[in-house]
Specification:
The protein folds into two domains: 2-224 and 402-417, Glycogen Phosphorylase B (Rossmann fold, 3-Layer(aba) Sandwich), CATH 3.40.50; 230-398, Rossmann fold, CATH 3.40.50.2000. Helix content is 41%, strand content 14%. It has helices at residues 17-30, 70-76, 82-89, 117-134, 148-158, 170-174, 180-192, 201-210, 230-233, 258-269, 286-295, 311-318, 335-341, 369-381, 383-398, 402-417; strands at residues 2-6, 36-41, 54-57, 139-143, 162-166, 195-198, 218-220, 244-249, 275-280, 302-306, 322-325, 346-349, 362-364.
Length: 420
Amino acid sequence: MNVLMFGWEFPPHILGGLGTASYGLTRGLAHQGDVNITFCLPLPRGDEDQSFLKIVGMNTVPVVWRNPDYSYLQSRYPWMDPDDYYRFRDHIYADFNYIGTDDLGCIGFSGRYPENLHEEINNYSIVAGVVARTMDFDIIHSHDWLTYPAGIHAKQVSGKPLVIHVHATDFDRSRGNVNPTVYAIEKNGMDYADHIMCVSELTRQTVINKYHQDPRKVSTMHNAVEPLSREIQDIEPIEHNGEKWVTFLGRITMQKGPEYFVEAASMVLGRTNDIRFCMAGSGDMMNDMIMLAAERGIADRFHFPGFMKGRQVYECLKASDVYVMPSVSEPFGISPLEAMQCCVPTIISKQSGCAEILEKCIKVDYWDIHAMADAIYSICTNHSLYDYLKEEGKKEVDAITWDKVGEKILYRYNKMLGWR
């Protein structure tokens, strides 16, 4: 089976959970055998793992005719087969000279979430038309709203079925203050999709009720985690001279509920002074959280190390005694699973998708800072509770694998194509 996937992030260059999920999902799917995945990415850097899929850089697909030398293409994009460039060039389907392109006739992409994001989404869908006319594939799979227009275009060009994967909706990102443009893109993708995969039942219900989709074409496809590499397993936890460390790790935005973490921390520090709190990440509420910690008189017990990725994430987790994810609306939330892999007792909000599949953790309502503070204090002071959550949490999450997710996705593909 040949799968054409559209994504926006892929490790090692990630900005959030979307890239991590895209990697795990594609790897788990590839492990099912006889599945060839072409993964389209706005701006690959050449250091992505392509051992189990092929990555197409949308910034290397021409939309305006050029005739560069083979050797020049090799020097510009050493990770790309120059023959692919010429094949794409032969399938340019319209005059796109009005769009700003480089000397190879390709559109530039930031690979991030810039101010002109909607322009990049549109340009990405234009390039998708060239890719869809060139590649041989059986099914289309689009990850998150940024790539829905690309998936729709590919479906219109090829007539092949479209799966969209809802990693989040704007209802999650905005706490209900939905951007009408984003909502329209999301709903259009769902309307055109032959099947909609959601990362949780929580998200599935949002898709059905807020986007008015037929429940029969919407399924739940929970996320999972990759087994820890030997390099990560061998990281030695940092000792903190008898103090306990409690960590929040993620985007510091209103969706993630950082203010509830700070308020709960203030309540805990009203009982003891032997605990430190770490808010790792970046986001538009970071300065507000620094100010809130200062206003509560706990700035000397709070640390803001900034954005982390790769090994840094695991170093931070392994140095923690408790991990807290107080998200207001979390479609899934992979980070608690990563924490539990590292034997870190975990507290999550009941408003998170991962709460549907995790049992060996403590669940509280995001707004219940009293319950959150009690849970933090109990784990830090009750050795039996700490040991139980540490050991049983790791056992539970080790059984939640991407290979199992890949098996379910392949089953869904086969059912859609009438192959099973």
